[in-house]
């Protein structure tokens, strides 16, 4: 049963992050996801200090607030003339450092260590269970991640056309009266929510891989957004299951193995994708040269 809960937890993390990652990749905002996954740390630390609990709703609120603050600061710096990559690097490193200071200075009051923040504790999710009316309902992490995934699916399902148009052509979306800024911040809020829900399972560093790698792999395999979303979830699920058994075989980090498998799947797609694979592109170039030579 331990195997099942770990694989299910990894799959839910990958699915939640993968759906949002598709929109981040399409909008060329992959590094913003990286920034949010690190900069929500101060919000989580402050929530712990206020509530003295990991299970508080304040944790989600604190992370979401700092996720939105991150996006606001990045855009403010960009509008001030700073380059995009520099803005992202400055904001997320500064906020992440503040979070590290808060945790290290208040270690006695915060039931969270930096190893948990960076690498997660997916191997122990089955021990922290939800007890209701005397019944063991399974790991709390699974309920939290499952609820997060449902919220993400509901938001994307309700506003699919708006998210799609904002991702592909924000200028047209604005011309049609769609509040582009609102959906931008809604997406960033969902990324923050997904990040904090995944913290204990995969940590701040590895959640970036879950946000970007499955979505990037799916991007190479299809030109349709709906199919890309499905592929991203499927790739995340395969990475979680295969990564767990690889980690068990090598006696290595579970979360790290899951991301490594996802990276391997990306490499295969990059080389052999029938649409955008490197080999296909090389063959097309060879044919063009043959035609030109003849």
From TrEMBL:
Q: Which Gene3D superfamilies match?
A: ABC transporter involved in vitamin B12 uptake, BtuC (1.10.3470.10)
Q: What is this protein called?
A: Manganese/zinc/iron transport system permease protein
The protein's predominant localisation is membrane
Pfam families, per the entry: ABC-3
Q: Which UniProt keywords apply?
A: Cell membrane, Membrane, Transmembrane, Transmembrane helix, Transport
Give the family from UniProt.
Belongs to the ABC-3 integral membrane protein family.
Q: Does the record's keyword annotation contain Secreted?
A: no
Bilayer topology term: Multi-pass membrane protein
TM segment ranges: 6-26, 31-50, 56-74, 86-104, 140-160, 172-196, 202-221, 228-247, 259-280
Q: Tell me the InterPro entries matching this sequence.
A: ABC_BtuC-like, ABC_TroCD
BP-aspect Gene Ontology terms: response to zinc ion; transmembrane transport
Which cellular component terms (GO) are annotated to the entry?
Answer: ATP-binding cassette (ABC) transporter complex
- CDD domains referenced in this protein's UniProt entry, alphabetically: TM_ABC_iron-siderophores_like
The listed locations are:
Cell membrane
């Amino acid at each position: 049963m331990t195997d099942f809960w770990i694989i299910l937890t990894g799959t839910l993390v990958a699915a939640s992050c993968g759906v949002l990652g598709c929109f981040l990749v399409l909008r060329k905002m992959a590094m913003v996801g990286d920034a949010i996954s690190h900069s929500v740390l101060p919000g989580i630390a402050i929530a712990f200090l206020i509530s003295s609990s990991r299970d508080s709703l304040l944790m989600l609120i604190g992370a979401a607030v700092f996720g939105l603050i991150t996006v606001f600061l990045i855009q403010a710096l960009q509008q001030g003339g700073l380059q995009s990559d520099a803005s992202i690097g400055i904001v997320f490193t500064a906020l992440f450092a503040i979070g590290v200071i808060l945790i290290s200075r208040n270690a006695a009051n915060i039931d969270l260590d930096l190893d948990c923040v960076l690498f997660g504790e997916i191997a122990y999710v089955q021990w922290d269970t939800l007890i209701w009316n005397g019944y063991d309902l399974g790991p709390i992490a699974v309920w939290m991640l499952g609820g997060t995934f449902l919220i993400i699916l509901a938001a994307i399902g309700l506003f699919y056309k708006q998210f799609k148009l904002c991702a592909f052509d924000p200028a047209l979306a604005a011309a049609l009266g769609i509040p582009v800024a609102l959906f931008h911040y809604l997406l960033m809020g969902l990324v923050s929510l997904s990040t904090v829900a995944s913290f204990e399972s995969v940590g701040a560093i590895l959640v970036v891989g879950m946000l970007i790698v499955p979505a990037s792999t799916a991007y190479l395999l299809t030109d349709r957004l709906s199919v890309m979303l499905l592929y991203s979830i499927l790739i995340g699920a395969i990475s979680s299951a295969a990564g767990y058994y690889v980690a068990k075989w090598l006696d290595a980090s579970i979360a790290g193995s899951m991301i490594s498998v996802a990276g391997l799947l990306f490499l295969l797609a990059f080389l052999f994708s029938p649409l955008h694979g490197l080999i296909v592109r090389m063959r097309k170039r060879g044919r063009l040269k043959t035609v030109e030579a003849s």
